[in-house]
Each structure stands twice: as C-alpha cells, then as structure tokens.
Amino acid sequence: MTSHSPYHLSNPSQGHLNPFTWLVHRLRHWLDGIAITNPRQAAWICRLIPASCPFERDIRLGSRTVHIPALCRINPLYEQLIALRLRASSYLVQSSRSGFSSSFQQPDSHPVQESPSCP
C-alpha cells in the first residue's frame, strides 16, 4: 500500500512535488517528530524560538505611525516551530511541577485522598 502523504516521499522525483515543496514537507515532518526528552533541551528550544514575531513593529515617521505586520506567517515552517516551542514549554511546566511537588512531600507522609465533589 502506498501513501499519498508527501512526508513519505524519499525524493522529489517520486511525486508531483517540486524540490522546494518536497524539502518543506520533509522539514515539517522532522520538526513534528522532535521529542522533548529533558529540561535542558526544552529550555534551549524555548530560547531559540521566540514567543512572538521579532519583526512586527510600529515605526513613527514624523506625525505618522507605520505598522510593519508580523512576517512569521509567511514562513512555511511557522506552525511546526510554534508547536515545537509549545511542546518544550509544556515539558518545562510539567517537569517543574513534578520537581515542585516532590520537594514538598514528606518522606513518611501518606497520599491525601480527595473526596468527590459531587455526591
């Protein structure tokens, strides 16, 4: 069974994709497949990928203000990069929560059982 997904093409001549489109699809697949495995990697990714577009600006020219819109949307890898940054941020939050809760748990304490909110 053959797949029609461009991610599974081994080279551009096998499909109807031009080389640029093929490369973009391969890069998207690679970025989507990056697993966040430790806090150091997650922090590095968060520092590498900005949370907002660094190109969006308001420039004052005399009495007029010119707005330069965010250009990140024209980046063909924008969604994958933002998703990667979100995965890294989520990993950092989860790892800090587990470290935070384990640092305050007493060694001899028993887990607290929560009562259900509805009878």
From TrEMBL:
Domain (Mo-dependent nitrogenase C-terminal) ranges:
24-96
Region annotation (Disordered) ranges:
98-119
Record's Pfam families? Mo-nitro_C
InterPro entries attached to this UniProt entry:
Mo-dep_Nase_C (IPR009717)
**Highest taxon of the lineage:** Bacteria
- Report what the protein is called: Nitrogenase
| Source species of the chain | Thermostichus vulcanus str. 'Rupite'
Q: What is the lineage of its organism?
A: Bacteria, Bacillati, Cyanobacteriota, Cyanophyceae, Thermostichales
